[in-house]
Amino acid sequence: MTETTRLKQALHEVTPAELYRDAVPPGATSVYAEVRLHGKVIATLYNSGVAATSGVDPRIENLPSLRNARGSGPTLAQRRAEDIARAVGGTIVLANSAQNVVQRPLPPAQRYVDYSAVARAQSQLRSRGATI
């Protein structure tokens, strides 16, 4: 098993909330929708346009709408939800707190990395004998 694969597995064990807890700007924490596959939530989209996924999935990790934040707010959240659902064959469930564009004109979403979560994942790998 390669080191990259081991790191991805360790990151998969860290919950999305840990990886993305700083990704949702203050005041923009309301959920827009969830993407579900076989009843399990695989992605949560926020009214800000931020997407949090439930682990590393090769079908969604390189989707253009996740790599390039063209747009913002509910419009971006909807596009990302549709792309993720299409890629995995899942369904979109809109939240009661979903906003439309008129309700929430936002600046473009920003990406954040929780370096402490990455460090924890690396520590887990090292404790299993992996070299990073």
Automatic annotation (TrEMBL):
Top-level lineage group: Bacteria
Record protein name field: Uncharacterized protein
Originating organism: Roseiterribacter gracilis
